Amino acid sequence: MPLLSTSSLVVKPDQSEGCIGIRLATNEHELYKILERLCDLKNWLVQPYLAGQSASLSLMVGYACVCLLGTNKPHVVQINDSLKLLDFDINSLQGENDKLLEMAKNAYAAGFAPAYVVWCA
Questions:
Q1: What ranges in the chain are assigned the alpha helix state H?
Q2: In angstroms, rounded to a whole number, what is the distance separating the alpha carbons of residues 3 and 27?
Q3: Do 10 and 42 reside in the same domain of the chain?
Q4: CB neighbours of 91 closer than 8 A, spacing ≥ 6?
Q5: Is residue 81 in some structural domain?
Q6: pLDDT given at position 95
Q7: Which residues does 43 contact at the CB level (< 8 Å), separation at least 6?
Q8: What is the pLDDT along the chain (121 residues), one digit of tens a residue?
Q9: Residues 100 and 59 reside in one and the same domain
Q10: C-alpha distances in Å from residue 69, one per residue of 49, 95, 114
Q11: How many CB atoms lie within 10 A of CB 84?
Q12: What is the domain range of residue 32?
C-alpha cells in the first residue's frame, strides 16, 4: 500500500518561520528524496498538507486568557516542491475573528501555542 494515496505531505523544519525550508511531497518517491537530503531528521516535521485559507495570528496568552490581537492573511506561492511567503494582508481577516479565536483557545487548551492556522470555509 502506498504511503501517500490522496494528499500531499509537508516537510518542514521544527523551528522555522515564513515558509523557510518547507518542501512538498506529492508521492512516496518525492518524500524519500526530500528526507534523504536532510542532515538531522529529528529537527524536521512531516505533516499532511491542508488546503484552505491560512492565517497568521497575533496572540497574547496569559494564565487564564488567550487574546487575539490581529489576524493576517499570508500570500504564499508554490515554486517547484517548496513554498514561498510573499507578503501579508495585515488584519484582513477580522470577519473571522470569533472563529479564529475559538481555534486558538482550543489549540492552547490542548497544549499548543498556535501562530499559524488553516481552516476550510
A1: 28-37, 97-109
A2: 8
A3: yes
A4: 70, 71, 72
A5: no
A6: 86
A7: 13, 14, 15
A8: 344 445 789 898 887 777 888 899 988 899 999 988 887 878 888 888 887 888 888 888 887 788 888 888 989 888 888 888 899 999 988 888 898 888 888 888 888 776 666 655 4
A9: yes
A10: 27, 14, 13
A11: 13
A12: 1-49
User: Please, which residues have CB within 8 angstroms of residue 111's CB and are 6 or more apart in sequence?
Assistant: none
Phi, psi of 25 (to 5 degrees): -120, 125
Coil/strand/helix, residue 66? strand
Distance CA 21, CA 99 (A): 29
Q: What are phi and psi of 33, to 5 degrees?
A: -60, -45
What would the grid cell of residue 75 be?
500570500
Among all chains, which residue has been given the C-alpha cell 494515496? 5
Examine residue 19 and state whether it is found in any structural domain, yes or no: yes
Q: How many CA atoms lie within 13 A of 79 on its CB side?
A: 9
19's grid cell:
515558509
Cα–Cα distance measured from residue 117 to residue 56, given in angstroms and rounded to the nearest whole number: 7
